[in-house]
Design a protein that fits this description.
globular
């Protein structure tokens, strides 16, 4: 959805992150509208576990606002760390105590967005940053929207491996759609494996509809039984909602 750079705010002497649209999308009206919406929605959420977005700006190729191609960018909090996806690729599954700490922070950050009626729609490890102290930041509200405004024809936007069944079907979305994605993320951080793994979108949808994930304790023998029981309750509730 964008190219992100570390930059220095020369007036304040602080590191910030600048997110630019890729060149292939820089002149797309739809992409620019989505970019603006990301800033508008993200700025509504003020929470320690949600990446702060500051402003939106424009610059031309010559850097002085003169002739040249116009580039739109947003400024946001620079998180000195790495995303959860790269961390898990590097170390595998997280220790249960660390996974539980991350789970709590993810729930808190997501709840803050939902309190404002905002659905993230693309919650996945690559959109979750951990700073140097291990604190969570939910990032990238590029696909987010207000629950009351998301049209069914736009519901399928997202990352297939972490999409809810209603996203696959192009149905009505709600905060429960994010909770489904959250459950998939939590399964992965506790076990080091995705609950469903497929090579095509069609196969992924079929697996979700016809099978249940392997119990986490089959992969992690020392896992707290309470974590697994909560996972099973979450799965049962979501299955009942689907039907």
């Amino acid at each position: 959805m964008g190219e992100v750079y570390r930059a220095e705010d020369l007036k304040l002497g602080q590191a910030v992150a600048l997110k630019f649209l890729p060149r292939s999308l820089a002149q797309s009206e739809n992409a620019l509208e989505r970019f603006t919406r990301e800033v508008r929605l993200a700025r509504q959420v003020s929470h320690p576990n949600v990446c702060r977005v500051f402003d939106i700006g424009e610059i031309t190729d010559d850097g002085n606002g003169g002739e040249g191609t116009l580039h739109t960018f947003l400024t946001m909090e620079f998180v000195d760390g790495e995303d959860l996806a790269s961390l898990m690729r590097r170390i595998g599954r997280l220790p249960p105590d660390k996974a539980l700490e991350i789970a709590r922070q993810l729930c808190a950050g997501l709840a803050a967005a939902h309190e404002h009626g905002i659905i993230h729609r693309d919650l996945k490890p690559a959109n979750i940053m951990l700073d140097g102290r291990g604190r969570v930041r939910i990032t990238d509200f590029g696909l987010a929207g207000l629950a009351a405004e998301i049209r069914c024809d736009a519901a399928r936007a997202g990352t297939p491996a972490y999409m809810s069944p209603e996203q696959f079907a192009g149905g009505e979305l709600s905060g429960k759609s994010d909770l489904y994605s959250l459950g998939l993320v939590l399964y992965e951080i506790f076990t080091g494996k995705r609950p469903f793994d497929a090579s095509t979108v069609e196969e992924m949808a079929r697996l979700r509809d016809r099978s249940a994930p392997t119990a986490p304790s089959q992969f992690v023998k020392e896992l707290d039984p309470l974590i697994e029981s909560r996972s099973e309750e979450h799965t049962s509730e979501l299955q009942s909602l689907r039907h």
